[in-house]
Design a protein that fits this description.
Layout lengths: L1 H17 L19 H16 L5 H14 L3 H4 L1
Length: 80
């Protein structure tokens, strides 16, 4: 079920980002200053999450994953 939902989420995200209706389907209109691209950013995060759940490796994320592991493995003496 998780794989099905990840595929569905990835396809919906791609559909929203490519937006074949040329802007007809918009959650937040892009012409609102400061808020206009929040919907695209959140859908992009959803897409990356779904692709990661499907086991698709994203090379630009490996840098962040390794830094998270090193941050999580520090001891109290290393932090001081």
């Amino acid at each position: 079920m998780k794989k099905f939902l990840s595929i569905l989420g990835a396809l919906a995200s791609l559909f929203y980002l490519f937006n074949p209706g040329a802007g007809i389907l918009e959650i937040i209109p892009d012409n609102i200053p400061g808020l206009g691209n929040i919907d695209e950013a959140s859908v992009t995060i959803l897409l990356v999450y779904c692709l990661t759940n499907l086991g698709i490796s994203l090379p630009f994320l490996s840098k962040f994953k390794s830094s998270e592991k090193s941050i999580g493995n520090t001891t109290d003496s290393e932090q001081k």
